[in-house]
Specification:
The chain is 42% helix and 19% strand. With 270 residues, it is α/β, with parallel strands linked by helices. Strands 1-2-3-4-5-8-9-12 form an eight-stranded parallel beta barrel, surrounded by seven helices. It has a two-stranded antiparallel sheet with strand order 6-7. It has one domain: Alpha-Beta Barrel (TIM Barrel). The protein starts with a strand and ends with a helix.
Length: 270
């Protein structure tokens, strides 16, 4: 059976305002666990105690690559203290992306971080966006990363939204990494027209060009994804967790209301 977690980036404003109260609300919605995106200056010990009171599992955390590389042992040890089983490289700034001058540092760094995480009883994951689907030497950069870093040091955390956005079938891509896909990200969206600057649309990229086309993140089951197929693929691949993530709320709902719509949809699939 696959457990369901919420990526807390989805409710980051709520977390900043009321960390423990937000955890309790997530538990009340029916989520089994959470994946952190920052601790908002809370100590690992305090976070672990809050999780216990909320009745949630700390399945993992997204931690910026540069932050982990700056102090790998201490940073990863903090998440191990919380009880996280997985820690993920969540996003690459432009200079670290495939084709950039520092992408090789990411490959080498993933091996280093993977070894430290393994020694601490955790597993390092890589969480993709769309830019890893550029081709290097005739292969997707994401595949090249997984070919280069051994599976015992780096596992996949396939973000099904971005796989779909680049025109690859998310279910088939998850199946491709069967045995190496312990965590799968479930993210829905609606897109129309030619959207060339999606990151500006969601407020995390610079640039002066005005957004074109339409793109918005949606609660799971409310957009363009085939989640019955994705869930079947996750089970086939041996995933222990699926993680709901919605970068921005939509459809006139709050972030927590969107999270509730997502969990209700997924529970209806079981």
């Amino acid at each position: 059976m696959v457990s369901i977690a919420l990526q807390l980036y989805s409710i980051r404003t709520d977390m900043e305002q009321d960390f423990e109260g937000s955890l309790k609300k997530v538990a009340a919605l029916g989520y089994d666990g959470v994946e952190f995106a920052g601790l908002f200056d809370k100590s690992p010990k305090a976070v672990k105690e809050m999780l216990t009171r909320a009745g949630l599992i700390a399945m993992g955390a997204h931690v910026p690559f540069a932050e982990m590389m700056a102090a790998p042992e201490s940073v990863l040890a903090g998440y191990a203290e919380i009880g996280c089983k997985y820690v993920a490289i969540p996003y690459l700034m432009e200079e670290y992306r495939p084709g950039g001058e520092k992408f090789n540092e990411v490959i080498q760094g993933a091996a280093t971080l993977g070894k430290i995480a393994k020694d601490l009883g955790m597993t390092l994951l890589y969480h993709n966006h769309d830019f890893e689907f550029v081709k290097l030497d005739g292969k997707y950069a994401l595949d090249l990363l997984y070919e280069t870093v051994p599976a015992d040091l780096l596992q996949t955390e396939i973000d099904t939204c971005w796989v779909k956005v680049v025109g690859v079938d998310p279910a088939e891509y998850v199946k491709k990494y069967a045995g190496r896909a312990p965590v799968v990200h479930l993210k829905d969206f609606y897109k129309s027209g030619e959207v060339t600057n999606m990151y500006q649309l969601i407020g995390i990229a610079s640039g002066e060009d005005k957004p074109t086309g339409t793109f918005e993140f949606r609660p799971v089951g409310s957009g363009m994804q085939d989640f019955p197929a994705i869930m079947e693929a996750a089970r086939y691949a041996g995933a222990s967790w699926v993680v709901v993530e919605q970068d921005l709320p939509s459809m006139g709902k709050t972030a927590l209301e969107c999270a509730e719509m997502s969990i209700n949809y997924l529970k209806g699939l079981k």
